[in-house]
Write a structure and sequence with these properties.
4 copies of one chain form a homotetramer. Chain A has helices at residues 12-22, 41-50, 74-94, 119-140, 157-162, 166-171, 181-193; strands at 3-6, 27-30, 53-59, 96-106, 145-151, 202-206. Chain A is of the alpha/beta class.
């Protein structure tokens, strides 16, 4: 049976991916913050004691509270360095992905269009995207596909925290709506279900035609 | 019933997309060069007399014979300007895409990593990618998704023409193989089948982890 | 003596570059539209009869009148295909750049962030940027540096035509002002004057911190 | 009098920038590792006790020893997180750049084309590039220009450590040579000397036409 670990799998995009994978008979471990706190190296190491391999891994975690640059403390940087970067590196150093598997990174559109309110997230998610890109070439040799999904405004609790007037915000979006987490869930599911392997080493903006840069 | 027009639909990636869409009961017009010669404005206009709307459009066409820059003639530029750029613009100006539809552009990885042997293709495919990006925002208002797939080395007749020793070439690829046209066919099918709409205005490298740039 | 040809050298950014190069004793041919009309292949060929080599070449030309996609005619496309793409290709195919020389392309920030009002410009300037990138590697072997400058909002007649209320527009810019053509003129001058050669094959956004994409 | 602080100013690219700025009568503090060790938060804070403002700041530091991903320890990540990211953030949070000033970041071409041997550098230099991009918009309001120079292979001790057979390596470069540190030094000098301010929020590859991606 195919096994999947979905980090941040109890809510938002992570939950949508978990649900979509369950629908095609994949054995999903939808890890909640109780199972693994990606901001704590201790928690990550404990998680890795019990998990040493999987077929599918979804690297997904929430972002920090918005803060202006001058207000960010050394503790903030270090906490989110763990959560958005070092934790994921440690997982990839210690968790075996079985041959023919998949790793999806759920990053954010801020990696390509950095956001002043989300400066911590822009920085560390970009950093990990660099690592993920490099590793995609090694994983390719084992037929493991690495796909970086960079969501734009998706209808999650997180987005509702960040944006006050959602209705007004939606009017300015090209599609006049936030994306549905299920669209990302189904996208991940569809790639796995159709055994699409050659899509790898790529960052896919998932933002309803909202970005402005060409590539 | 859902209708699709697949340009260059009789071979290679176009055929794979046609076949995949047919498998989910879409009414596919797999246009061959006899139906529409995208290098001829006359042929394009004639085609548009008989086709004035569709739900799904696949913009796909072959590339030029490799030529060094100094050997490219004014006639070459103009021919491929028609084939790779002006024809597609004319089609989008005259063919109605029904609300909720999809447009897929099959471009090439040379748009992001231009290739000296494929200079004409690099230039005009990039030019049309700019147009396509701009239009994605208008189409978004009608819930039409625009997806630019930029394939790397795929196992088609075209690739076999361009690369002499395929076996040797494959050894240097991260996945040790060319991509299958069916992987792209199934990718397109899966997006449509799963009604994924928020993926739009995006260029997706489809190259088996072969590219080196970060985004 | 060092010679330079500056296309579109009689006004705007072209004039500023001409003036800056003259100030360091370079023999500048500031070509006006009377000398060469880059929208006319006939005019370009005539120009090339009289010019067969230079040390420094500035590829620079005005852009088209803004037009919505559906209003662009086949004649529009072809005219600006000449002006923004084919003319420059023809020049590079026929004009010898002396060893150790420089080629500057003055493109536009729309190549990276395409603009719906400037769709023709976005497309063809991007197309030529691809050609220029490819050629930079060949030119490098003769110690010729190729630099693509992509200006943002610069204080030229062109910008005043495109933007109605300049004062209001400037308030939304990060630097609260348009760029000065002289800043680009001096930039080009400084690179040549300081014999900086290793800067090549690069696109340099020149936009007063106005762009939003990371690279 | 104009003051400049050049981090890593005693060797390589930093020294070349220091020397170039001194040649135009700028009062340069070429900080060596004895003055500030950017891998030590303690050293950085001590440095900031004595330095609280400058007109020109050059953010420049060496990179880590090459290591394969699986060999990188938590201590390695944290050390270089300080050196390549957190130290620079702390400096920008505490050091006032005077109105009309300049900040140059000397990053690396690995931020756009990540390198498996330089995975730590690729990650954290990209992360800081995101922060620097965001801040460029704030600094613009005080007429402070932020320029990210991403050098390719430059003739420094560092490059000689990384590449065994330099002569052979140079033959494969488009310009058949490494770049000179002085070219970067003179580039920085020329921008300041010519009061070019509108060049800001930009990443400039400085690599002798060596990169392959279009933008």
């Amino acid at each position: 049976m195919t096994n999947a670990i979905v980090l941040g799998g109890s809510r938002g995009i992570g939950k949508a991916i978990s649900d979509a994978l369950k629908s095609i008979e994949i054995n999903v471990f939808a890890a909640s913050k109780n199972d693994i706190d990606t901001s704590s190296m201790k928690s990550i190491k404990k998680f890795l004691e019990n998990q040493n391999q999987t077929d599918i891994l979804i690297l997904n975690t929430g972002g920090p509270v918005p803060k202006q640059f001058l207000d960010i403390t050394e503790e903030d940087w270090k906490l989110y360095h763990n959560q958005l970067f070092l934790g994921f590196c440690t997982i990839l150093q210690n968790l075996k992905i079985n041959d023919g598997g998949y790793i999806f990174l759920i990053s954010s559109n801020v990696i390509k269009e950095p956001n002043p309110k989300l400066i911590i997230s822009s920085a560390y998610r970009a950093a990990f995207s660099e690592v993920f890109k490099i590793l995609s070439k090694d994983y390719a040799q084992k037929n493991i596909s690495c796909i970086n999904i960079a969501p734009g405004p998706i209808n999650t609790d997180r987005t509702k925290e960040l944006i006050k007037n959602i209705k007004k915000y939606e009017k300015d979006l090209p599609m006049k709506r936030l994306g549905d987490p299920e669209e990302i869930g189904n996208f991940v599911k569809a790639i796995i279900q159709n055994k699409i392997k050659y899509l790898s080493g790529v960052t896919i903006n998932f933002d309803g035609a909202n970005s402005n840069f060409i590539f």
